[in-house]
Amino acid sequence: MIFSKSLIQWYLQHKRDLPWRKTPQPYPVWLSEIMLQQTRVAQGLPYFLRFIEAFPTVQDMAAAPEEQVLKLWQGLGYYSRARNLHATAKHIAYDLGGSFPPSYAGLLKLKGVGDYTAAAIASISYGEAVPVVDGNVYRVLARYFGIDTDISHSSARKQFTELAASLLPKDDASAFNQAMMEFGALQCVPKNPNCGSCIFNKECVAFLTGRVNQLPVKLKKTKVTNRYFNYIIVKDGAGKTIVNRRGDKGIWFGLYEFPLVETETLTDKAATTQLIENFEGLGFVPKSIRLLHPDVIIHKLSHQKLHIRFWEAGTDLLLTEAIDNEQVKLLPYPIVIHNFMEKHWE
């Protein structure tokens, strides 16, 4: 089809020089695809390079402790991806003899690997003719063909997958799938694409009908919950502090944080000070409490908006569970805590 040939030709001329494209082996392709879920290439590339340096092979990642994987991942968000990455590395290294499943169907059985990631690995590494369907693909196809199906509806994936499959050249699945993703990332971008320079502007239904900014259609709205966090940085008689590992449910599970007082609303300084004084989670009554910076830090997640303040609570006691500053820095934290520590930690 003319669309497919034109798209691949565009890709060969405009594709970015990315390290996982230089050796289409399953390990770097898998690693890059997991990292780039919910993450732009510009943000994910430095992480990819750090991971490859630390873990040149899947066996190296499997042998690493989970905390090292999470520490390297720190800042990419959606930390379940990192845990699944580590679990899958161990499964491949120890249960599958160090080799990735050699097909789309086999790849789908790996933890953290869904339709899109399995299709990407299978087509790029094995040349298997399976289409990839992600946000970029939805956007390119919806605009080019003028499709007004709501992509948040469950039926949309089947429709777009069938259309992508009909366009996919069986003997060049790798180039076509990468071209679809690259075209959506560089040319057919979500907002204000440069349609004047687009190779498809004479056939694109959205461009010809003035609906570029209306397609693809996505009607479902994400409900955002506000939460109010007060982190307590303990300073005991030896200058040590306390950190806790978050449980296995909710946001950031498995990462570390300071003792936390969560409130239903943003409480004032006096009320928060009293809450900290009475907080049984500390195990002591603070001798002094002070707010460490004047502004509330806003941290946005996909479904939550966090309002965060950091407080220092001092005591002359020597706390058995407290650790020193060097130990504190080695642990993996949510990026909002890490950033605060980078600016304010002594």
UniProtKB/TrEMBL annotation:
Residue ranges of domain HhH-GPD in the record: 35-186
EC number: 3.2.2.31
Cofactor: [4Fe-4S] cluster
GO molecular function, one term: purine-specific mismatch base pair DNA N-glycosylase activity
InterPro entries: A/G_AdeGlyc_MutY, DNA_glycosylase, HhH-GPD_domain, HhH_base_excis_C, HhH_motif, MIG/MutY, MutY_C, NUDIX_hydrolase-like_dom_sf
Co-factor note (free text): Binds 1 [4Fe-4S] cluster.
Catalytic activity field: Hydrolyzes free adenine bases from 7,8-dihydro-8-oxoguanine:adenine mismatched double-stranded DNA, leaving an apurinic site
Record key words, sorted: 4Fe-4S, DNA damage, DNA repair, Glycosidase, Hydrolase, Iron, Iron-sulfur, Metal-binding
Listed GO biological process terms: base-excision repair; mismatch repair
Functional summary from the UniProt entry: Adenine glycosylase active on G-A mispairs. MutY also corrects error-prone DNA synthesis past GO lesions which are due to the oxidatively damaged form of guanine: 7,8-dihydro-8-oxoguanine (8-oxo-dGTP).
Family per similarity comment: Belongs to the Nth/MutY family.
Protein name: Adenine DNA glycosylase
